[in-house]
Amino acid sequence: MGVNSGTVAVLSKASVSKRKGPLAVASKDAAVVLQEVNKLAKAQQQSVKHRATLEELGISDAREVAVMDDADVAQTIERIVIQAAQSILAGTGFSYDVPSRASSNQLYVPQLERIVLKSAVSNRPFSSTATVRKTAITTRVLSLVHEVLNKRIHITKRDLFYTDVKLFEKQNDSDAVLDDVACMIGCTRTSLNVVASEKGVVIGRVTFRDDGDFIDCTKMGVGGKAIPSLIDRITDLQGDAQFVLLVEKDAAFMRLSEDRFYNQYPCIIITARGQPDVSTRLFLNMVKTRLNIPILGLVDSDPYGLKILSVYLSGSKNMSYDSASLTTSDIKWLGVRPSDLETYNIPKECRLDMTESDIKYGQDLLKEDFIKNNPAWMAELELMLKTKEKAEIQALSNFGFQYLTQTYLPLKLQQGDWI
Amino acid sequence: MGVNSGTVAVLSKASVSKRKGPLAVASKDAAVVLQEVNKLAKAQQQSVKHRATLEELGISDAREVAVMDDADVAQTIERIVIQAAQSILAGTGFSYDVPSRASSNQLYVPQLERIVLKSAVSNRPFSSTATVRKTAITTRVLSLVHEVLNKRIHITKRDLFYTDVKLFEKQNDSDAVLDDVACMIGCTRTSLNVVASEKGVVIGRVTFRDDGDFIDCTKMGVGGKAIPSLIDRITDLQGDAQFVLLVEKDAAFMRLSEDRFYNQYPCIIITARGQPDVSTRLFLNMVKTRLNIPILGLVDSDPYGLKILSVYLSGSKNMSYDSASLTTSDIKWLGVRPSDLETYNIPKECRLDMTESDIKYGQDLLKEDFIKNNPAWMAELELMLKTKEKAEIQALSNFGFQYLTQTYLPLKLQQGDWI
Q1: Which residues of this protein are catalytic (chains A, B) (predicted)?
Q2: Residues with Cβ < 8 Å from A18, sequence gap 6 or more?
């Protein structure tokens, strides 16, 4: 019951132990801090290789889809259906030519840093018992998409499924055919006005119109603006941001938005709150296309953080036909990188041991093209697998709650410390 | 290979079978449609029982916390710590009195439709081996919260954990103590400036300031405004909305926002995208407190839809000490209700069979206070468990993609069809 020196220590402010952070301190001058970012921006803007077309690369047997407007998609559907009707009237039944989305028909193009679809096409005749059901579903989906386009509305995949449960039976069946239809028409899935649900949020130095409403993302309080799933309703995207900060998690986003990080360092802060959804990926692509500024990724130092960057960068295999609008090349890995753990003296107790499945997942990543084609990323991943340690962005809170915004990021930017 | 009549049928528009919907059609006049809503609003506004205090109800042994500002919370922490220091200097060691958050100390108050904490308190002495660690953690959390309040910033629970991993060891340990500290101080967890991540989104006839920025939720495009996790940064909430539409899922939210449902029927549309998070619950409570308009819930017709309503309504057991600001009384269940499946002739193939675990979960709900105290809800849940059928909001798409906004909701409103 007596006085205990440990007790006093706990109460005393001195117990907030001042651990050693990084050696350097960032400049107070935002212009100095941003010099490296501006160099990167210039280099990227001058680089002609940027978003080369498949044609320029001499890849003739790959297929990509394009963003098309409602009327064009509707017209293409009409053309496909008239062809089928004529074929029926000629007494020859009908069939569709559907681009194959099998992995054997996919190709990673290192110059583009993404996967595209090769040219294999499979024929889907109505008169075959093997394909009759799929052909009927394809026809129904074409008809429903046509209706949606004419009404100028957007629906979700789930809505589509529920319009004809008897025919579709499982949502997987209508979903798969929806991707087929996008490939047949040669448009993005979003061009079919079938959209995914929204998850992302944006704040910072960017303005745009969302369905006509003017949105200024520097005036969105601390909560930010929800990124709409109807990405084609976004117009007039502008801004004086000098870079995009792509953040894995909501907690880091909150820190950045509360500290209004973008006021001092003109940037756009985007998060999909975990695994990137289609809308956030489309939005990032749109920002990059319109503003052409560097994109810097801030993710956890673990295999999933890296995977998240790769989805923004190279896309998922399932929608590789649409990789041009869904992926964004030239994303830099700013942090938290495995080497940061030592550089920034992150205390041992704030690092976590990788689990068996983390290690397995990391080893799988070693074999992926986006890692194999980037030696610096490869080296970081190998370091992670060697030390078997991971760390979250939040681990930086150990040096103080605002260490992320006041020290870590400015320093990273000033030193051009990205790969 | 010949012409197949089935083929033609699939292609023909006539195959979009016109199934029988509900018998009545809603009025084209929004004022007529909203008559029942206005009656409900008036009744709720006149009702004195609305948000009675525990004192008024004669419940003296229950404990609730209040929203407190940064300075008040900081002062209370200083008082607690000075007391401890004095006790140490007097040679008697120190201890904290911590309100018990065990279920045995929780009470459902039917008049309030929520759970509150009873008055049991446990003593946490530093000198006991059983409580020394928890007492040290409590002290550290008090000190960290004090720092955050002085800096006038907000952090997440995860940030808090990472500031002293050596002491906290597991995040559960710092999280639990954080709730203890809120109870000790008598303030909400949000008043400690420790917030949850944001998930919710809002659109419609409401304006407010988010950290000083003026936000007009009728001008948020189709994406809506992200509900900030820093709910205490929201001020000046106003609006001419006549009701709140509380939506379970993002897909329905998208339909409502794309169709700008709130233009025709002045309302505020809120979704937490599934299980309600703390920020969305606080926001709903704030809307209700400021505008005092009816709240109508639109959820899937399954036990989880009902559970979602109950979380908004009665809160979770874990944070019952804060139920006054986290819960919102008088939420009406608009739909999709089990009885709607017949009333609206939802085709059999759009209904889903309840799984074993759905049924088990539904049976558990039958025993919960919020159901037992509401015979109409009880009857619906019993009907669900009898038919063993569930349905999603999306099932309404079967009658057309805009059936939800153009027919179902107006009709429900006009008929005052909520319970």
Answers
A1: 162 (o-(5'-phospho-dna)-tyrosine intermediate)
A2: none
CATH of domain A22-51+196-414: 3.40.1360.10
Q: Which of A267-271, A349-353, B312-316, B363-367 has the lowest mean pLDDT?
A: B312-316
Say yes or no for a CB contact (<8 Å) between B213 and A224.
Answer: no
> Which alpha helices (H) appear in A269-320, and where do they start and end?
278-291, 303-314
Task: Map out the domains of chain B as residue ranges.
Answer: 29-51+196-414, 62-195
Tokens of B124: 């946490």
A61-95: per-residue pLDDT in tens? 777 788 899 999 999 999 999 999 999 999 999 99
Q: Note the Cα A387 to chain centre separation in Å.
A: 28
Neighbours of B400 (CB within 10 A): 16
Choose the closest CB to B153 out of A94, A159, A402: A402
DSSP state of B187: B
Nearest residue of B to residue A156, measured between CA atoms: B251
Residue A45 is inside which H or E element, if any?
helix A35-46
Q: What is the CATH number of domain A62-195?
A: 1.10.10.10
Torsion angle defined by CA atoms of residues B208, B212, B213 and B217, in that order, rounded to the nearest 10 degrees: -10
Distance from CA of B162 to the nearest CA of A (A): 5
pLDDT in tens, B90-145: 999 999 999 988 888 888 887 777 778 888 889 999 999 999 999 999 999 999 99
Report yes or no: B401 at the A interface, CB cutoff 8 Å: yes
